[in-house]
Target: Iron-containing alcohol dehydrogenase
Amino acid sequence: MKTEDNLKKEKNISIGKTTYRNFPMVPRVVFGKGSFSQLGDILLPKRKNSEAPFIFLIDDFFENHMLALQIPLLFNDEIIFISAEEEPKTEQVDAIVARINEKYDEKPSGIVGIGGGTLLDLAKAVSILLNNKGTAKDYQGWDLVHKPALYHVGIPTISGTGAEVSRTTVLLGPERKLGINSDYTTYDQVILDPDLTKTVPKDQWFYTGMDCFIHCIESLNGTYINAFSKSYGEKALELCKEVFLEDIPESESRDRLMMASWHGGMSIAYSQVGIAHAMSYGLSYLLGVKHGLGNCLVFQHLQEFYPEGVKLFDQMLEKHNIQLPKGVCSNLTQDDFDIMVHVALGMEALWENALGPQWKTIMTPERLQALYEKI
Amino acid sequence: MKTEDNLKKEKNISIGKTTYRNFPMVPRVVFGKGSFSQLGDILLPKRKNSEAPFIFLIDDFFENHMLALQIPLLFNDEIIFISAEEEPKTEQVDAIVARINEKYDEKPSGIVGIGGGTLLDLAKAVSILLNNKGTAKDYQGWDLVHKPALYHVGIPTISGTGAEVSRTTVLLGPERKLGINSDYTTYDQVILDPDLTKTVPKDQWFYTGMDCFIHCIESLNGTYINAFSKSYGEKALELCKEVFLEDIPESESRDRLMMASWHGGMSIAYSQVGIAHAMSYGLSYLLGVKHGLGNCLVFQHLQEFYPEGVKLFDQMLEKHNIQLPKGVCSNLTQDDFDIMVHVALGMEALWENALGPQWKTIMTPERLQALYEKI
Model:
C-alpha cells in the first residue's frame, strides 16, 4: 500500500478542488439503561432462516457473568468468548472467520460484538471477512473493502474508544497496526446501554476514557478540523471533563462517558487523531501495550504539543489516583526504538494533522526517539 | 388515529418495562463548503437505469439562481420548483406523486429535496408515497409506513428546522398538522454545504434559527430527556448562542448554525418539543403562519414556562433588531380560538413532555386561549 496515495484518500483531496468524505453513520442506535434487553427483538427480523445463526463475539470477562445468560440465543446461534488481554490481530480475525465458515453450511445471519474496543473491532473485521475473500491483512488500509459486510451489531461494555461509531477497525497485522477503514466497516446497529459499563475495573475505565479525551484533544488541535468534527469533538471533550474532573453521580457519569465516546468517535469524521495515537501505535506494535494505556503513557509527555490538554490530563490522573507504569521503554535496544519510530512515523496523516504539511522537519526520528525514551 | 395509543408509541413504553426507540440515523452525510458539487458523483451509483430519473424538488427561490444551473441533470431527470411560501400540505404531496407516476413509465431512481424545512419535508413525504399506496394523510401519525421509501437525498439551504436529520415530515392535512413519523422517513443521504445558506434573507435566517433554539430549550427542559438527547441538545443550544449572541465571522456563523440544526434535530431522538411547538401548530393550522415565525410568536410569551430561554430569546431579538408582527390573534372569533386550542391540545406528547403526566390540570383550554390572545 502506498502511503502517499493513502494520505490523499484520507484527506479526500483531488487535484484542484477539495472533496469531502461522504461519511457513513451508524444507521440505527438505541440508547438507554437496560436497552440491552431489546437485542432479541432487534435481531429477530434480521434472521435469514433457522440454519443461519447469529454469532456473538463476547469479551471473556463476561464468561460467568449475568450478561452471558441474557444473550437471546435461538436455533444454532453461538457465543464465542474472546480474551481482550491483547490488541486484536488480523490472524485472530482469519481464525474466527475460518472456524465459522467450517462449522456452518449457511452464512450467519449476522455478527454481534459485545465488549470494548478489541471486541468491537474484531466483530467489525469478522463481518467484513465473512463477505469478502482473502485475509484480514489484505484489507488494512483505506477503502480496500468492496463488498458490504455481513449485518453486524456493536454493543460497547466500556466507553471511550469510539469503535462503536467509527468507520475503522484497527488491527495488529504481520507488518503494521492499521485500520480496515471503509464505508462497510461501520456497524449496522448499535445498542448503547450504560448499565453494561458498571462492571469495568477502575484502571480500565480510566485508560479507555482517556482514549476519548486524548483523541478529542488531538482532533480539536489538528489542522484537518472543520465545523462538523469540531462540534462533536467539543461536546465529547466537555463530557470527559465532567466525568473525570467533576463529582457527578455514578449512573450519570456512565451515561455521559458513553455519549462522550459516541461523539468522540464521530468527531473523527473530518479530522484525525495526532501525536499520542501515532506514538501509541508504535508502543502497541513492539510491546503489545494496549491502546488506552499506550495513549496515556505517551500523552503525559506531550506538553509542548498539547499544553492545555496535558494540564487537564495531569489533573485527571491526580483526581483518580492513577499511577502510570514507569520505565516501559527503559530496557529497549536501538533496534527496538527504530521499529517503534518507523511504525509511528508511518502514520503520515496523523502527523500532518498534528503538525501541518511540514511535519517531517519538525518531528525527526531523533526527536521522536527522545520522547519514547521518557516513557 | 387514537391519541392515547399514539402517545404510548411515542414514548415507547410497554407494560412493566421501558423500551427505547431504535432511532434511525441518516446513514450518509457530507459536510463542507462547496460540497454541493459532489451531488452528481453521489447520485451516479444510485441511478437504476436511464429511464428512471432523479426528481429534484427545489425551493422556487432558486429558480433563476446559480444553484439551479448546478443541478447534475442526466437522462430524463426533472427539476420541480416549489414555493415554500406556505407550509407543506398532504394534498401537495399527493399531487406531486400523481404527476411523477403519470409522467414516467419507470419509478424514479430517487428524490432530491433542496431548500428549507418545507422542501425537505415534501421530498421525504413524496419518496414515501412513491413506494406506498394511498394518500399522504393516511400515513400521518406514528410508524404507519410499512414499506421503505424511495432513495431520498436532503440538501438544506437554510438552517434550523432539523428536518435534514429527523424521522418525521410534518404536513398540514385536511384534519390536522401532523408528522409522518417513521423509520423510513429519514433521509438516506444528506449534503450539508454551509455555502448554500448564503442567500437566506435575514428575517428567515432568524426565524428558522429560532426553530432550532426553541426546540433545544423545549427538549432540554422536558420530562422525556435522557443523556443521549441531552448531549445533542446542549451542543445545539451552545452553537445557537454563539451564532445569535456573539460576533463571529459570517462564514463561521453559517457553519455553526448548520451544525446546530443537525444536532438540534438529533436531540429529538429521545425527547420531544414542548409548549411553543404545540401552540405554533395551532397557529399554522388556522392562520397558515409559517413554523419558524409561529414558534417565535408563541415563545416570546412563555416566560413562566421557560424563563431562561425567553430571556436569551429577547436578547437575540434585540441584537438582530427583529420586530415580530403584533396583533396576529387580535381579530379572531371564539370559534377560531377553539380550533387553535383544540389543535394545540391534541399534541399530547408535547404537553406531557413540557408539563409532566398531569399536564391537563395545568394547561386548561382557558389558559391556553389567554396565551394565544397575547399574540
